[in-house]
Design a protein that fits this description.
The chain contains twelve helices and ten strands. The chain is of the alpha/beta class. Strands 1-4-5-6-7-8-9-10 form an eight-stranded parallel beta barrel, surrounded by six helices.
Length: about 325
């Protein structure tokens, strides 16, 4: 199935300037993402510090991203809270702001049962006029969408796929067996991209895409083109960066690295996230200097991924 969701999508940071959203920096980052080969951007994730944004900021961020990205680049809005009613309100706001699709995070803190998760997802899907991707993030939400629960959601035609944050290959296969293979599966773990594609996945949503979108696009292209030796080389070059980023809560070190890559873009996160430990700054600079650059002639251009995405509706 050649759906527009096939590809590599960046869970974009939210840049701040003295605690206000820096829309100039946002514009620079989005244009760079597009130029570097990202298939789309996702706003309002944990990487985007969604929990620190207020309702007005979420809507303004989505509207600004849509305007900057243009009509043909997907802007996926991450929505969802621990309350279903509040989640529906976020969906309405994101659609008005011009989102291309919705990434629905599961309720956090209150740890609902599988029946509760299914009811929450169905209510959100019924309220949405856009395609919905479920966000399965048990590390943050303390609950996991059981594979069997996805069967209960088969009647919601606009729930088109799931983002598996852990990149579990066994679950990827199990979901394909329980649902039609057209139900799309994306990985949130960059280290699993080649294996996940081989297991039937359609792409990835990653935080590291903020720093190396061109490299992830090449990695995906190599895996899809069955150039497994190239995919292995590309994957191994990413390992030091992935290991480093795990040393602080996301997106602390991603933002620090971006401030080095793009002078003038601040590294600040909102409280309660603190600045990176000073001893890590040197490591970040070393890894940034060794960041993978495009390799001319070694990996073919990205394979066709279908339509670029739904245009912004007026």
């Amino acid at each position: 199935m050649n759906h527009w969701l096939h590809g590599t999508f960046t869970a974009l940071v939210t840049p701040f300037d003295e605690d206000a959203i820096d829309y100039g920096a946002l514009e620079r980052l989005i244009h760079w993402q597009i130029a570097q080969g990202a298939d789309g951007i996702v706003i309002g994730t944990a990487t985007g510090e969604n929990s620190t944004l207020n309702e007005a900021e979420r809507s303004e961020l989505c509207a600004a991203a849509r305007l900057i990205a243009g009509r043909h680049v997907p802007v996926i809005a991450a929505v969802g809270s621990y309350a279903t009613a509040e989640t529906i309100a976020e969906i309405v706001a994101a659609e008005k702001a011009g989102a291309s699709a919705l990434l629905l995070r599961m309720p956090y803190y209150n740890r609902p049962t599988q029946a509760g998760l299914a009811a929450h997802a169905l209510a959100a899907a019924q309220a949405a006029g856009l395609e919905v991707i479920l966000d399965n993030d048990p590390d943050r939400c303390s609950v996991e969408i059981a594979s069997e629960t996805l069967e209960m959601l088969a009647g919601a035609a606009n729930i088109v796929g799931i983002l598996e944050r852990r990149g579990d290959l066994a679950r990827c296969d199990r979901i394909a067996r329980l649902r039609d293979r057209r139900f799309m599966r994306l990985t949130g773990a960059a280290e699993t991209i080649p294996a996940y594609l081989l297991a039937g996945g359609c792409g990835a949503v990653t935080s590291v895409g903020n720093l190396a979108p061109h490299w992830l696009a090449r990695l995906e292209s190599a895996a899809r083109s069955e150039l497994y030796g190239q995919a292995q080389i590309l994957q191994r070059r990413l390992v030091p960066l992935l290991d480093l980023l795990a040393r602080e809560p996301d997106p602390v070190l991603v933002k620090l690295a971006l401030s080095i890559l793009h002078p003038g873009i601040g590294a600040a996160c909102r409280a309660p996230l603190a600045s990176a430990r000073s001893e890590l700054a040197t490591f970040v600079r070393d890894v940034i200097e060794d960041l993978p650059r495009p390799l001319a002639g070694t990996v073919p251009a990205a394979v066709s991924r279908g339509a670029m995405g739904p245009a912004h509706r007026a």
